[in-house]
Amino acid sequence: MARGERRRRGAPTNGGRTAEGAARGGPTRRERRAGVARGTVGGAVLAIVVLPLALTLSGSWLLAWHRARRAVTLHSAPPALPPDSSSPAVAPDLFWGTYRPHVYFGMKTRSPRPLLTDGKEVLVPEVGAKGQLKFISGHSSELGDFRFTLLAPTSPGDTTPKYGSYNVFWSSNPGLPLLTEMVKSRLNSWFQHRPPGASPDRYLGLPGSLKWEDRGPSGQGQGQGQFLIQQVTLRVPFSVELVFESGSAQAGNQALGQLSGSQLTQALETHAKAFRARFEKTFRLQEKGLSPEEQSLGQAALSGLLGGIGYFYGQGLVLPDIMDEGSEQKVAPALFPPVPLFTAVPSRSFFPRGFLWDEGFHQLLVQRWDPRLTRDALGHWLGLLNADGWIGREQVLGDEARARVPPEFLVQRAAHANPPTLLLPVAHMLEGGDPADLAFLRRAFPRLRAWFSWLHESQAGPEPLSYRWRGRDPALPTLLNPKTLPSGLDDYPRASHPSATERHLDLRCWVALGARVLAQLAEQLGEAEAAAELRPLAASLGAEKILDELHWAPELGIFADFGNHTKAVQLKPQPPHGLVRVVGRPPPQLQYVDALGYVSLFPLLLRLLDPHSSRLGPLLDVLSDSRHLWSPFGLRSLAASSPFYGQRNSEHDPPYWRGAVWLNVNYLALGALHHYGHLEGPHQAQAAKLHSELRANVVGNVLRQFQATGFLWEQYSDRDGRGMGCRPFQGWTSLVLLAMAEDY
Q1: Among 17, 31, 150, 651, which residue carries the largest CB count within 10 Å?
Q2: Per the record, what is one GO cellular component (predicted)?
């Protein structure tokens, strides 16, 4: 803007020649310091030039400052959840849980300052002979008095104590992210396990550290308080119980005894029996004739997803949207305000944090099991809205979460969107008509509307009612096809040369879905003004004529992206640089992008087409063609006929969404086929048949891989069905349960 102002205002006027001559002659040293030119007239002209420039720069700076502030300011709409919704007073049954999903069994409270990290509270251990920890007593403001007791280990099913070797280690706490490395650095092999009458065995143990009475002034250590480990070494098999007793729980139930031993076993068996009964009542797999093995898979899928729900609290890093796209000016990220998040995670071992577009799929399953959990999760996600209506696609909250994330993924960019999948469970709420769901949606509506409005406006494309993902990778020489991480489909092929001319089909379909759901919600809630605004937008986005004009590629016979593209790109070795992208002929030009795959199916996947649409048949044909998307294990993410199929994106970046079978999109496809298979139209029978066959392929393969490996996987090979990517991946792969139940 400043350069433009200078060009417009710098043309010669009265005295212009004098100013020009002064510039050629060059100022003296004193004049350089003063910032003026020779001559009264020339100086006046320069003053006129510089003053608007300064005003323009000041205005730009103020605008940038304002946008930066909004990026890290919470939205002003009333919260979707009451402020104390996570407290033990409001939700006592959810206050404790396995809310540290990245560890094997990480219990935590839904509190910004849980016992785990609260170094300001009291914690005192009682250690007996030979390093055996008797108990740890303590006090916190939320829990009152409490006690941890490590019971004597036994053989399974026995009550006789079993011999164990004990090590107690404590020190000042260096912070949760550093604990593992600190413990590993202290292990040594000096110790021997000597059961009576048996030969000794060496084991890695922790040496004792500070005596408790030497732990520091006022009972406090350095940093974040004290850290204590009780190590127990035994010969297998064995059983160990750690009992937590809370004074606040005892106060509410004087008859409550210590939950351990046979009492704990009986309680667990009672819960397991109740779970199985509730599972069948909810999903009716046995009633529908599914095998015991399939029922076990479904129970494992649900249990793994629920067990991965975590509670996080902290501040994320945000890069404000203050510069034009493509600008090279550096802007420092800023801290978002401290916020809580109650969410499921894609993978406890590999992705133990909140992902926006994953969570909508997670909640489709959680919602069937416990609608209250879904309302709670959606309310927390909507609590992350900034002043503009943006939600970051990855939520890295707290030191523990931050320690597990590569630095390049810590910062979330306030210009980048993510598929609005939270609207999928919202749509299900609307269909169900549960009064509790509708009451929640009434509170959440202002935030849902703000979120959708931000998406609709910030990701607008070059043509009316077109949309473009912001945040594609630049066209680096090492990348076969610049990735589009905000889309969720990462390396799915887009236009070979990123530009502002692109029109992204999947994004337009997500916005169309959002407009439809928000318009229906506004009408059901009686929000007349909002309904009057959203209804015409939903109608325009749902008009197939406009969709055809923007995205139907007659030469390809499918829906497609549009942009500056050529298929003549490949990676070739160029020592010493490794693989480098080479662009051949024909050169890139504005055209539809030939990349048949998941993106091509989005008008079908999100059920945007009329059952009599002339486009429905061609989509069903390419979907069912084994030369393209159909495989014995599910739908491929990219057609086997595509030149990008199975191709790595760089020397160090193997294919991700370039052929592998993903459960979330296959679930959407099953839902769409089921939908069109139950509506009158020329393609009803074909859709119903494809639904039955695809369901058998997907469920059958996930079951076989689960039986062979014990895991649900991130993705599956379209060639042999084997699980690929990270595992366990009990996020959206758990949707296999809803596929078995035919619940879409």
Answers
A1: 150
A2: endoplasmic reticulum membrane
Q: Are 448 and 542 in contact (CB under 8 A)?
A: no
* Backbone angle region of 734, left / alpha / beta, with phi > 0 → left and psi within -120 to 50 → alpha: alpha
Largest pairwise CA distance in the chain:
109
Characterise 457 by phi-psi region: left (phi > 0), alpha (psi -120 to 50), beta (else). alpha
Question: Which one of 20, 370, 490, 610 is the catalytic residue?
Answer: 490
Of residues 47 and 236, more confidence is placed in: 236
233-264: pLDDT as tens digits: 999 999 988 888 877 665 555 556 788 888 88
Measured CA to CA, the distance from residue 212 to residue 210 in angstroms comes to 6
Measure the N-to-C terminal CA separation of the chain; round to a whole number of Å.
51
Burial status of residue 373 (CB atoms within 10 A of its CB: 0-12, 13-18, 19 or more): middle
Q: What is the DSSP letter of 260?
A: -
Burial of residue 217, with CB atoms counted within 10 A of its CB: 0-12 exposed, 13-18 middle, 19 or more buried: exposed
CB–CB of 504/512 below 8 Å?
Answer: no
Q: What's the angle, vertex CA 38, arms to CA 33 and CA 43, rounded to 5?
A: 90
DSSP, collapsed to helix, strand or coil, labels residue 30 as helix
- Round to whole Å and give the CA distance between 445 and 441: 6
Convert the pLDDT of each residue in 537-571 to its tens digit: 999 999 999 999 999 999 999 999 999 999 999 99
What letter does residue 527 receive in the DSSP assignment?
-
Tokens at 409, concatenated: 């993924």
289: buried, middle or exposed (CB in 10 Å: 19+, 13-18, 0-12)?
exposed
In three-state form (DSSP H/G/I as H, E/B as E, the rest C), the secondary structure along 219-234 is HCCCCCCEEEEEEEEC
The CA distance from 662 to 713, in Å, is 9
> Quick one: pLDDT at residue 56?
53
> 638-685 pLDDT, tens per residue?
999 999 999 999 999 999 999 999 999 999 999 999 999 999 999 999
Give the number of other CB atoms < 10 A from CB of residue 650.
19
How do residues 499-528 score in pLDDT, each as one tens digit? 999 999 999 999 999 999 999 999 999 999
Mean pLDDT, the chain, rounded, equals 87
For position 57, what pLDDT does the model report? 52
Q: Which listed residue (400, 527, 714, 718) is catalytic?
A: 714
Q: What is the pLDDT of residue 388?
A: 97
> Is 371 in contact with 433 (CB distance < 8 Å)?
no
Partnered with residue 227 across adjacent β-strands are 171
Q: With contact defined as beta carbons under 8 Å apart, do 319 and 411 qualify?
A: yes
Domain boundaries, the chain: 117-252
Measured between alpha carbons, how far is 741 from 290 in angstroms, rounded to an integer? 9
Question: Helices (DSSP H) in 114-171: which residue ranges?
Answer: none
| pTM listed for this prediction | 0.87
10 Å Cβ neighbour count for 202?
10
Query: Could you tell me the CA-to-CA distances from 346 to 98, 155, 306, 314, 491 in Å, in that order?
Result: 15, 35, 11, 20, 19
Contacts with 678 (C-beta within 8 Å, 6 or more apart), sequence order: 684, 688
Q: Which helix (H) or strand (E) holds 442?
A: helix 435-458
CA atoms within a 13 Å half-sphere pointing along the CA-CB vector of 615: 25
d(CA 382, CA 392): 11
Active site residue 490: yes
Cβ contacts of 307 within 8 Å, gap of 6 or more: 98, 101, 348, 730
Are 455 and 420 in contact by the 8 Å Cβ rule? The answer is: yes
Reference 468, options 595, 561, 600; nearest CA is 561
